[in-house]
Amino acid sequence: MKYFDAFGEGGFHSAFMTTYAFGSLAFEDIPFPKLRGAGCRNIVVLADTGMVNQAFSDFGPPRFAGTSYHLIKTSVPGAFHPKITMLLGETKARLMVGSANLTALGLGGNKEQVASITWSAESPENAKFFMSAIAYFRRYVPADDQWFSISLQRALRSSPWLRDDTSNPAFRTEGTEALNLLFDRPEITILDQIVDSIGDDAIERLIVVSPYWDSKLEGVARLKAGLGDPATDILIEDDANGFPSSELPRFSDVALFDISPNAAGRFLHAKLIIALGKEFDHVISGSMNCTLPALTGPAFGGNAEAGIYKRVVRGSALVALGLSDYEDSRFEKDQLARLEETFDEIETTQPSVDGGLLTLQAGKVTWTAPKKLPSDPQAVQLYDREGEALALIDIGGAKSAAHTIAPASQRPKYGVLTFVDDTASAPIQVTDLDYLAVTTLPPQKGRKKRLMDTLAETIHEDLALIEALNQLEAIEDEDRSSHSITKTKPQVQEEAAREYSVLPYEEFIRARTLANAQGKPFGLYLNSRHDRAVNLVSHCLNQMIGLVGPDLGESEEKDIQALSVVDFRTTEPQSQEDGHRNNGGGSTASRITVAPSQILATAKKFQEAVVTFEKRSKALVDKRISTSELVRLRALMQIILSHAQPLSGPYSASQVLPVYIADGYDWPRLIGRLLQQHFGATRALQNLTIENDEAEHQRAIEYLALSKWSAKAALAAVMTNKKATSLRVPLERLLTSLLAQTRSILSLVESDQAYFDEMTGQLDQRFQQRLGLGGSVAN
Fold first, then answer.
1. What is the CA radius of gyration of the chain?
2. CA 20 to 30 Å from 260, out of 27, 557, 569, 638?
3. Please, what is the angle between helix 627-642 and helix 464-482, to 10°?
4. Using one digit for the tens of pLDDT, what is the confidence trace for 601-650?
5. Boundary-marking domain end, from 384, 400, 425
6. d(Cα 427, Cα 444) in Å, to the nearest integer?
7. What are the distances in angstroms from CA 684 to CA 184, 627, 675, 736?
């Protein structure tokens, strides 16, 4: 299979990739859409910090990085130079290691060499190579990265064969393996791994293909010495980067050959070491040029590199690689001088200034300084995807800073760090954790997809929301039982199981408050799955009240969906009053004529839903609950408010719940019965367990805001109706209890109060006029 075609192969859910140079235009035009089109959406790219900054300075930030795939900048003493593509699926996997960067030239212009290792039920022994690759990725992900661990959790959860593997991913030094994965490792250099892989097989001839060389040919010298100083043939392009031929006299039995015919007019970027032994042919391919930094690694100030070693039948390697006739193109002496004149070591350019990290989650943009700064940082200017300036984050020499963004505001796509000396950094891509949490989920199928589509199209509160929540939770229970975490290696088990870790809400609040006081991130790890029932229903409820920002997916490719896009079609028949109500006194609008029996039947359904919730809550007394129960209560209250009749004046046919009725289905009473379950004798928040995820806390804030709004609205309603006098004192007591709990939580972190107020404002817009309430209910 050709390298290009591998990206369009189906059956993979996750892709982890590394590259030295990163061409965002080429990546987003070729591999990225092919991967997503084949159902692979959990995509992570690690790239050299300096090269990313240079590319961003020259061509601007990518269109989709930070929102539909995760781009990580990483650094080593030399260059971060490995080229790895690891595609993971539930029943198969492919690991490709070679010389191709994620650039236009690497993906289609140069002549590259890429080797592949596959895993399936027929080759279970290869799982160790994928485990080794995962360990390698983890080693180079910066400690302050917020998304990689979540991406890896998803991959492990969907590839149980990775969790089950108990083999040792460490490099095997016995020299008996026919296949080995070579990485720069702290304990052993790439060169020593090559020597150990070959083992005792005496090497008779060494053949090296490399586009770049060090000026003293020290890489060649070390490689020859390590393999017993065999006769060596060096294969280069005649018209490429030249060669330091003046260094050849220091070597014995070294010859140069022109490989230009094999390149077919393309730049030969492949790197190959072919060691012909007495017993086997040994082939090493990968990212390593034949230079000292490549062969020694970061521990000696060199590069991070990756390669694959393969042991094949003696006499077969050159034929398989198309190099069996290379000896026909030997360089003559007069050509060697010309090669010396055109020799050019790997070019180095003045690096662009790194601007650090920008992370966006839960309405807060956080800037984190890079390890090195040329001068004191002054501010970060944020921009949207069109390059229009947004907010300015004042830094004033600090190492980190944050800025709050209103839910309905434009989300920033990148930023630029400015310094006190009037210089600026390369553009900084914003890692939008909220969007990544959704866009990188695998495409859903079957019953779950139908339920998700229903929620995406729902624009009116209805009891169907509760049924969708119940069905989605049932699907989750089924998935949980079929993907239970088996006993495995501690580190892998920790990665796979971390999503299930929860804290009592009080402990979460204490730890979060302390972290905020110290200026440290907390609860930003997105341990929860964003295709969970609680997330989907919560987002649906937020859409209904307008508590969502603009959808970036509308500006990206059609096949990249950022968040559930609302289709503004009604899901139930509506009267004219639903969209065009006249609330003025003395209105001539008439009420829609509906049979009393139909009104009663509909109202009774809401009453029955409240009774069911009461039974459920009583069964959970003194038991730990999750935010699912908060969302369930919130959904019921929002549904009741949507079908509540106003304090006075006309109302639509869907508003079937009166302000007061002796039969007990009046909406203030139903609201009071619901709130009684969480804020009466039993305090739900005392039994709440919460995942280490800011989105979980947001759900608690939304729950408190709606509870307060609903309680005040219900109290305002009963104050206008003499028959409802008996409900006033109970509602006042509930409101007092609710306000005390709300104040204790909102007083700790300033941003919580801001989000609470934003939620309250949206509720005013959604229900205040509809219910005939004067002034903001928040007051």
1. 32
2. 27
3. 160
4. 889 999 999 999 999 999 998 899 989 999 999 999 999 999 999 999 89
5. 425
6. 35
7. 52, 10, 10, 15
